[in-house]
Protein backbone atom coordinates (compact mmCIF):
# COMPACT_ATOMS: atom_id res chain seq x y z
CA UNK A 1 0.00 0.00 0.00
CA UNK A 2 1.24 3.48 -0.86
CA UNK A 3 1.72 5.93 2.01
CA UNK A 4 -0.44 9.03 2.04
CA UNK A 5 1.24 12.31 1.16
CA UNK A 6 -0.05 15.28 3.19
CA UNK A 7 -0.24 18.45 1.11
CA UNK A 8 -1.04 21.77 2.79
CA UNK A 9 -1.91 24.82 0.69
CA UNK A 10 -1.64 28.04 2.69
CA UNK A 11 -4.09 30.54 1.23
CA UNK A 12 -5.39 34.03 1.90
CA UNK A 13 -8.33 33.56 -0.46
CA UNK A 14 -6.84 35.74 -3.21
CA UNK A 15 -6.97 34.93 -6.96
CA UNK A 16 -3.30 33.82 -6.94
CA UNK A 17 -4.06 31.48 -4.05
CA UNK A 18 -7.06 30.05 -5.90
CA UNK A 19 -4.85 29.41 -8.94
CA UNK A 20 -2.30 27.50 -6.85
CA UNK A 21 -5.08 25.56 -5.11
CA UNK A 22 -6.37 24.47 -8.53
CA UNK A 23 -2.85 23.54 -9.70
CA UNK A 24 -2.17 21.44 -6.60
CA UNK A 25 -5.52 19.66 -6.85
CA UNK A 26 -4.95 18.91 -10.54
CA UNK A 27 -1.48 17.44 -9.82
CA UNK A 28 -2.51 15.46 -6.74
CA UNK A 29 -2.57 11.68 -6.99
CA UNK A 30 -4.91 9.31 -5.13
CA UNK A 31 -2.36 9.01 -2.31
CA UNK A 32 -2.25 12.81 -1.82
CA UNK A 33 -4.36 14.36 0.92
CA UNK A 34 -4.79 18.04 0.01
CA UNK A 35 -5.84 20.54 2.67
CA UNK A 36 -6.41 24.21 1.85
CA UNK A 37 -5.69 26.28 4.95
CA UNK A 38 -6.97 29.81 5.57
CA UNK A 39 -4.19 32.13 6.72
CA UNK A 40 -6.82 34.32 8.42
CA UNK A 41 -7.03 31.59 11.09
CA UNK A 42 -4.39 32.31 13.74
CA UNK A 43 -3.53 28.63 14.25
CA UNK A 44 -2.95 28.24 10.50
CA UNK A 45 -0.78 31.36 10.46
CA UNK A 46 1.27 29.97 13.36
CA UNK A 47 1.74 26.64 11.54
CA UNK A 48 2.78 28.50 8.38
CA UNK A 49 5.31 30.55 10.31
CA UNK A 50 6.77 27.41 11.89
CA UNK A 51 7.25 25.94 8.41
CA UNK A 52 8.96 29.10 7.15
CA UNK A 53 6.15 30.46 4.98
CA UNK A 54 6.98 34.05 4.09
CA UNK A 55 4.29 34.72 1.50
CA UNK A 56 1.12 33.13 0.18
CA UNK A 57 0.18 31.11 -1.61
CA UNK A 58 2.54 28.47 -0.26
CA UNK A 59 2.56 24.68 -0.31
CA UNK A 60 3.99 22.22 2.21
CA UNK A 61 4.30 18.52 1.42
CA UNK A 62 4.68 16.09 4.30
CA UNK A 63 5.51 18.94 6.67
CA UNK A 64 8.21 20.48 4.47
CA UNK A 65 7.79 23.77 2.66
CA UNK A 66 8.12 23.10 -1.09
CA UNK A 67 11.25 24.68 -2.57
CA UNK A 68 9.18 26.82 -4.86
CA UNK A 69 7.51 28.44 -1.86
CA UNK A 70 10.59 29.70 -0.09
CA UNK A 71 9.98 33.32 -1.03
CA UNK A 72 9.78 32.72 -4.77
CA UNK A 73 6.28 31.48 -5.53
CA UNK A 74 4.79 28.17 -6.61
CA UNK A 75 5.69 26.29 -9.79
CA UNK A 76 4.77 22.85 -11.10
CA UNK A 77 8.34 21.53 -11.53
CA UNK A 78 9.23 22.20 -7.88
CA UNK A 79 5.99 20.61 -6.67
CA UNK A 80 6.64 17.49 -8.75
CA UNK A 81 10.26 17.37 -7.51
CA UNK A 82 8.90 17.45 -3.93
CA UNK A 83 6.77 14.39 -4.70
CA UNK A 84 3.34 15.82 -5.54
CA UNK A 85 1.42 13.62 -7.98
CA UNK A 86 3.53 10.50 -7.44
CA UNK A 87 1.87 7.44 -5.91
Automatic annotation (TrEMBL):
It holds the Pfam family Thioredoxin_3. Residues 6-66 form the Thioredoxin-like fold domain. InterPro entries: Thioredoxin-like_fold, Thioredoxin-like_sf. This is Glutaredoxin. It comes from Paraburkholderia tagetis.
Amino acid sequence: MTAKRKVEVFSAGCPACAEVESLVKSLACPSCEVDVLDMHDISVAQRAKALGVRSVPAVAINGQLAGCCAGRGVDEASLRAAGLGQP
